[in-house]
Amino acid sequence: MEEATVINAEGLVAGRLASVIAKRLLRGERIVVVNVEKAIITGKPKRVLNWYMKRVSEWRTYYNPEKRGPKVPRRPDKVFKRMVRGMLPHKKPRGREALRRLKVYMGVPEEYKNAKMESPPEAVLQDPRVPRMSLGELYKLLRGGGA
Fold this sequence. Notes:
The chain has 147 residues and is of the alpha/beta class.
């Protein structure tokens, strides 16, 4: 089995990173993403939170609100994996196989502590003045019930 490429998501734009990873997965690479809670979502934090809360609340149904279940991921690692899945042909076997080659972790697991990590230059934040928040901050706000 080939060696996995380890990508450190700290300070990288989540959407750009997801598109780079999706392309590499379709080429057959195995990829491990670490520190995903430190990946960035651009936009004003309040607007990002409201947009995400709208997605979460759309699953509530009037006829049986107890049966709704957690259909939209909230944890940073699950949110990022869903971002990558959205950029893959996930209903086709090729896309499903590609998604199986992806591992996403919050923090750095023991087996990848000494691994050589890379950060794709395409995913680096270009303008430091852009308002932003990390996936970890979004998770804390979602867990705490909003801003």
